[in-house]
Amino acid sequence: MKTSLKFLAALLITSTFSFAQDFNRKIDSIIKDNYQKNPNVGISVGFIQNDKEYFTAYGNLSKDSQIKIDKNSLFEIASITKILTSNLIAQAVLDKKIKTDDYIDSVLPKGYVLQEKLKNKIKISDLASHQSGLPDIDFGKLIELNPQQPVSTVTEKTLIDLVNNCSELKDYGKYRYSTIGYTLLGQILENVYGKSYNEIIRNKIIKPLKMTNTLTKDFNVKNRTVGHNPEGGVQEFFNWNVTAPAGLVKSNAADMVTYLKALLNQETEISKAAIITEKIFYKAENRELGLGVNIMTDDKNTIYQKSGDSMGQSSIICYNRVKNWGIIILLDQRNSKMRQNLLNEIYDTVLTDTQSNKANL
Asked: pTM score, two decimals?
């Protein structure tokens, strides 16, 4: 009987290893095929399932560099920063600093004075689920002024003026993607903790997880990729400023997989906070949102996803808590269609197989 059990255990280990190898090859094949069709777009992908990590990458750091992109190459994660900010908001809830249904009136910095119709109206969860109704920064005008660093002229005064001059929330309770919402969330964090957003994200996410290649103010490193606009022109990384909580963190596939690992491990503070963000705070016919994440549900799966686009890079993160997997895709060009197609192809042709095959082991 003991011999049979040992044989069965060995068979299961061999089967699992063979399946993992096949799984890795499938993802690599998809990434390689897409790179061959788009040789000017560098790609870095990280995947985790049941604590096992896998990485693949194609392309060079720049057109002038012979250094290959790998799991440690630095990218702009752009609006994926928002899931880090929403996790910090949820950690503040766990720390009993705030509640998700608190009105923002009492937790915004002193310079903000809401007009009468807006008082005791907007909740923290409204900001984090893009339904506050507040006016947003006009990116079109900012890009015209400075196409390389459009947010460089945005200051706290810019934000205070936008909020204080708002007399009516025309679309309160309806989804409208908002940069100002997450910028205000960053300022709320600063107010309740008495520290800068940079200090907070470092103390609560970057340092505890040892995400040594996740950078904020200083990102002048040798392994940095070069961003490109949709036409292929070189695009600078955004410099750090007041809008940082909405999209200015830089990272790589290795560190984002580390984050996903912590997020999927229910014993960590990151995971406990993430579970708060995964609750449905906005629901419409074709959209469900948590705090900072899109929620997609079918008969078998609930998927949490967030995409990001800077002026020169595109990214997407996705995970399934029940199936215990997560994926990060980073591109060195602003190409939202390509990054979404990559995720769709990997999900449809690999992850569904992963779930069915794993069930048969």
From this structure: 0.91
